[in-house]
Amino acid sequence: MTELTQRLVAFIQDNLVLDGDDIKVDETTPLLVSGLLDSLRTARLLNFLRKDVGVPVPAAKLDPENFKDVATIVAMVRELESV
Asked: Coiled-coil ranges per the record (predicted)?
């Protein structure tokens, strides 16, 4: 697991999983299907990517396909870093 993957998994587990939810996040946890990402949580995730990771996500990338799981988010971030 890459450092970015570990950071994203930890952020989601610590900040987006509600207390009492018995969800263990890994790089393949379906974030949308499981209900982990709603509009507020997505905004928090985008803020984390912008401030802590240093990669702002443009509106053109705000497609559910890019937020299916941590692995797809990491792939999107790597793509944005290379631009």
From this structure: none
